[in-house]
Amino acid sequence: MKKTATSDNESVTKNLIISFQERLTAGDADGLSDLFAEQIDWFVPGSVDLPWTGRRSKSGDVSVYFRTMWPYFMAGKSESVLEKIIIEDSDAVIFAKFNHFAKSTGRGFETEVVLHFTVQDEKIVRMHLYEDTLAVSQAFFD
Asked: How confident is the model at residue 4 (pLDDT cuts 50, 70, 90)?
C-alpha cells in the first residue's frame, strides 16, 4: 500500500504529540519549546491574575509558560489522565483530565481539558487549551 501525504502528516503529528507528552511528564521546559515552530499560535484561557495564561507567539515562550506555571502547583501532587487522542492530517486533539493543587491555598481542583495542536513542517504551530477556567481560578483565589 502506498503512503499518502495525509498518512505522512498524521505520522509526524503523532510523533510530535508523543514527544510533547514525554517532555511534559519529564518536566523538560526547553525540550517542549524545541517541538514548536519559531512563530506559534498558543492560547491558554484564564485571568490576568494567573500569569501563565494568555497568548504566546514564539517558540521560546513555551518554556517560559511552563517555568512560570509549574511553581504555582504543589510539587508531586499533579496528575494528568489522558483519555483520548484524535489525529487527522496535521491536527491532533487530546482529551484529558488534570488534577492539581494550588500551592498558595492548598486547594485541589480537577478539570477536564481539550488541547488542540496543529503541525506544519514537522513543528507544532498551534496549541489551544480548553479547560474549566472557573475551577482553576477558584483554587487559587478566595
From this structure: low
Structural domain harbouring 9:
5-140
Contact 91, 116 (CB under 8 A): yes
What's 68's domain CATH number? 3.10.450.50
pTM for this model (two decimals): 0.90
pLDDT single digits (tens) 12-58: 999 999 999 999 989 999 999 999 999 999 999 998 889 999 999 99
Question: What's the number of domains the chain is made of?
Answer: 1
3-state secondary structure the chain: CCCCHHHHHHHHHHHHHHHHHHHHHHCCHHHHHHCEEEEEEEEECCCCCCCCCEEEEECHHHHHHHHHHHHHECCCCCEEEEEEEEEECCEEEEEEEEEEEECCCCCEEEEEEEEEEEEECCEEEEEEEECCHHHHHHHHCC
Q: 80-89 b/e with 16+ CB inside 10 Å = b?
A: eeeeebebee
